Amino acid sequence: MRRRDVIVTATAAGAAALLPAAAGSRGPGPYTERYLGRTIRIDASQGRTRVTVDGRELHLMRMGEGAYLSPLCHYGFDRTPLAAARRAVRRLRGARLLPAPPPRSWPEPVVPTGPVVPGRPHVRKNHLALTAQERRRFVRAVLEAKRSGVYDALVAVHVRANSHDYIHRDHGLRTAHLTPSLLPWHRQFLLYFERALRAIDPAVTLPYWDWTSDRGRDSPLWADDFMGGDGRPGDRQVTSGPFARRNGWRLRVNARPTGHDVEWANGYYTQDDRDFLTRALRPSGALSTARQLEAALALPVYDCPPWNHLSGEEPPYPSFRNHLEGYAKFPWERDWGKLHGSAHVFVGGHMEFLASPNDPVFFLHHCFVDKVWADWQRRNPGVPHYLPLEPAEDVPGLHTPLSPWHTMTPADLLDHTPYYRYDA
């Protein structure tokens, strides 16, 4: 049975099985519980399962049997609607639920000209191969990009694109997520960020994080002189390393002086008062494996209709893009949210939500995702490296300029070698 992106539905009898044991004694009628100060209600009495938090309906994406996704947690899949509602409540962290999204006042998007082709392509390395000096120079360049405002402007671009794409996951133009242009859009996004870093220090290039082999919480990635460590218990604030608030790294794009941490529960993302970076590192088992990556790389078709989170879900699984993004899986894979999605979940905190670039590890993660696309292109020289060739409903074609920049098309971004190469 194909999964559907709808408000969670189920028969009244089947819905009873999705509720905790305490609900069983009451049959398939409404189940209510207080959880972290909020009221969760699950009502399966009208032939479908309706989930509310404090009276506001929580629209869940049902990705398959035993796989539910809250709009508040893009890559965290849960086995029941109740578990998804609890995850959403944890993500809200005391927010008000508003009847409508309040106005937004983020920085204007960065709209530079297309990336300038360097005289000689630079090399992007695994972060484990960086020298101590290269690590220091990379961190200094990131801090300077933050000080200048370029970093926050790029975060704002991602927030706007991410919010729009998830709100319009059923109908409406999607450019950066849940769409074939996920990979070229982020390739352009990384090019702009890398260009900003190299304007500060021409010796700097983007490193990547290969989470199929570098999986430990004790990895040099989380060292105090590089990305810093996990968030502390409670508010999950990062307190060590150059990107800790106490060391000067303050979030501006999602910080709003309202006194409330506000997230619109159905996808109308608004604001977040916290001006500090958060992380909640999971056990290494949350990360996808080399076997899962190899299985995705073996898929010979870039993407297929309906060009969204449903693409390539059935044999012969003709969507390398959707398997890499994490919304499709093979029968032998246990969980949804693999590969690209699994790294967001592993890091947690801001990385699990639309403002994920506030965490600099986002760029190392997406640099690896870009490398995976490059590896797939090299392995499949005789097939289209982007589909659809012509614009399809709600998604860019090969020659469609990508918003918000409108300076490059997927066709312009297929060949990365004039700009950079990877070390392996």
Automatic annotation (TrEMBL):
GO molecular-function terms, A-Z: copper ion binding; oxidoreductase activity
Domain Tyrosinase copper-binding stretches: 359-370
PROSITE patterns reported for this sequence: TYROSINASE_2 (PS00498)
Top-level division of the source organism's lineage: Bacteria
Name under which the protein is recorded: Tyrosinase
Transmembrane domains' residue ranges: none
One family name in Pfam for this protein: Tyrosinase
Species annotation: Streptomyces paromomycinus (Streptomyces rimosus subsp. paromomycinus)
Record flagged with keyword Cell membrane: no
SUPFAM superfamilies: Di-copper centre-containing domain
Any one of the GO BP annotations: melanin biosynthetic process
Co-factor(s): Cu(2+)
Alphabetical keyword list: Copper, Metal-binding, Oxidoreductase, Signal
InterPro entries on file: Di-copper_centre_dom_sf, GriE/MELC1_sf, MelC1, Tyrosinase/Hemocyanin, Tyrosinase_Cu-bd
Protein family: Belongs to the tyrosinase family.
UniProt keyword Signal present: yes
